[in-house]
Structure formats: structure tokens, C-alpha cells
Amino acid sequence: MNYKKFIIYISIFLIAFGFFSCDDYLDIQPKDRVIPTTLKDYQQLLISAYSAFPVTKSKTELRTDLVNFNDSDASAESYRHFYLWEDTNYDATATEFDYDLLYRVIFYTNEVISNANEKLEESVAKKQLLAEAHALRAYTYFELVNLFSDVYQEGKTQRGVPLVLRMDLEAQFSPASLQEVYAQIHKDLDLAEKLVQIKIFTENQSYHFSQVAINALKSRVYLFQAKWAEALKYAQKVLDEKSDLLDLNHNNEGLLPHQLNSVEQILTLDYAVHNRVSEVAAANDFLIKKYDDEDLRKNLFYKEENNKFQAIKGTKENLRSSFRTGEIYLVKAELQVRTGDLDGAKQTLNSFVNTRKTAEGAKNYAKKINAIQSQEALLKEIFEERIRELAFEGYRWFDLRRYEQKEITHETRGQKATLGANDPRYTIEFPVSAKRENPFLR
């Protein structure tokens, strides 16, 4: 992305103020074109930021150990390079990770943060607006660094991503350090936590950041920084306010846990799976064998056709999830293990699995879990459960990066590729188009 051109574009956009929504779910159809000055104007600009948030994280599923590639699909040529970990040598028609769209979200939030604070009178609504803008900017930077930067290491200086906090035609957009980006993420989240006014949104508005969603994001950020106590504190804050789980034993409507009207929903900004990803990727045997006959998720999460298991998690408009309680239970269990509370972790894990297996299956699972004595063995089981629960929601690549950068081999059309253990390609390179536009990314 050419940043100066993009800033000029955004400036023109703001003068004309042609707000848009590319997504019916957000349900915003602006009627007028005005200079943003009122609370409503800035609320609409924030809607544009939410609407611009791309379906990019799920593309990482193609890089993981959970999928087979469908070469016969019409989109195969555009997505094969993801499956083969080819980050530099791919065809010009190939799709890329949405680096530029993530920065579009950041530019919108920057405008809200910079100007709404000065132009609007103090009110509860203004505080909520700014809380959401800070939280969305933090979430977007968190996605950027976990796509394009190394795994965070305390006390080590690492390359991050460009840190853009204001419109500046003369700025040099070279990457900041990873530590600087995380510091900004925390600054935004601390401000969001201070300003937020709404505890949790109802279904139709649940793509907005609420107090519970901010706590969920703070927990995830601390988790990825290996700051276990802080992460556990915020995971518990989430569950203190919202601990509902969808019990698959009593799921007569056939709901998915990440469906918009699921009781588990906290923030519904992301699609679980990009439609094209769901078409070119099928669950492999390694994944399907994780589910035993007593696990109710196998038939709910996958559809078997022609001896292939296709994920059905993200092919409809109402299948979205950025944070949900099912994930938070697994985060809490992991953090309890990491802080030495194995008994607490077992209790948390069993409470969760009771809603995912038959009664007999949950009983058998509890026997297995309760017999585990070592921290590492219990942690491994929690990551196994994360695979079963979160496959095809964009989490597996991040889990591989932070827990087990193992060797993976993929084969497609007779071409075999191997991602080695601790391979540098566990960090995705900046997209070719971004490096072409910005020499500081090369």
C-alpha cells in the first residue's frame, strides 16, 4: 500500500464523507454526505471502520496442519501459495493477506480518535465512541503483528509493523519495534477500558466493542505476550460477566457456538472462515481423528461429501466470532495450568467439555483429564481441545506459532513442501504488493 496516496484518499473521503457499508450485517446505509462534525457523523465513521475489517485471519488456516487442499476448486490457483508457504514467489493474480485493509481500519479509527475527541462535547455516548475506536485500533494492530511479526519475547527488540497514529503526509512508515506496537496496543486498551460505557451488546450490535469484549482482548494480548497472571485476570473478568456455554446435548436448533444468536457470543466482528478458504480447504485426517464418537462437534462442524469433510463454520452471513465464551474457558484453563493451578484447570476444562460431549463421553473425558499429573501433559490436552473447538476459526496458526512450531508437510498436484520446525516462515512476510509500495517493508 502507498501510504501517502492512501492518506490523501482518506482525506478526500472525510471531506466528502461518503460513508459506506460493504456488509448487510452492519446495516448502515448513510443518506447524506457531510463533513464529520457531529456525534452521529463519527459513529458512522466508526461503522465504516468496523465494516472495513477484512476476513484475513482465516486464510492462515491453509498454512496449518489441519487441512488438505482442494486443487479442483476454481479458486485453487489464487490460494495455493498459502498452502505451500510461498510468501514471496507467487503469481500476480494470487490473493494476499489483507495488509492494506487492516491499515484502512486503522486510518478510520485514527480519525475518530484524533478529531472526535476535540470536536464533540463530553457525553456518555462520546466516551463509548472513543472506547470502541481505541479498542478496534488495538485489535487491528494485534492482528497485524501476529500475522507479520515474530512471536513476542519479553526483553528482546523485534521488528514489528508500521505504527501509524495520525495522518501525516511527510511521515516515513517504517516498521516500529514489536515492543513499541504492543505498548501502543496496551495504551489503547487501557484508555478503552477507562472510557467504555456498555457492558455487552445485544445480538444486532455485537460487532461493537463492549466492556466484556475489551476484557477478552486484553486477556488474549497478555496471553500472546506470555504474561500469564495478567491474562488470567482478564479472562476471569470476562467469565464473571458472561459465562454461558451452548450445550450441544440440548441443541435442538442445531446452532453453532459462533452463530450470531449463540449464547456464547461476545464480539462478532470477524467471519470465522473466508468463503474461499472453506472451498479450497477440507479437514484432513489428522483433524477429523481428534473427534471421538462421543464428541458432538464432528457432525455439527463438518459435512462429509465424497469422502471429504468440509467445514461449515463460515459459509453464511450469521457465522461470525471474534471472541466467545467457549474460547475463554479454554484460555482460562491454559492459564491456570501455566500458573500452577492444575486442579482448577481440570475443573474449567471439564465444565467446558460437558457441553461438547455426550454425558457418557464427558464422564470418560473427566477420568482421563483427572488422571493427568504433569503440567506439560495437561497443557498438551488443552491445545488438543483448542484444535477440536476452534479449527477453521483462524486460531490454529497462532497457536502453532506460540506453542509448537513443528514440522508440517503439504502436498498438492505432486508438489511437496515442508515447513520446518521453528522455520522462519512461521512469521508471514509482508505481502509483495505492500513491499512494492513501501520500500521500508523490504
Automatic annotation (TrEMBL):
Keywords: Cell outer membrane, Membrane, Signal. InterPro entries: SusD-like_N (IPR033985), SusD_RagB_dom (IPR012944), TPR-like_helical_dom_sf (IPR011990). Residues 305-433 form the RagB/SusD domain. It holds the Pfam family SusD_RagB. GO terms for cellular component: cell outer membrane. It is found in: Cell outer membrane. Gene3D superfamilies: 1.25.40.390. Residues 24-223 form the SusD-like N-terminal domain. Belongs to the SusD family. This is SusD family. It comes from Candidatus Ornithobacterium hominis.
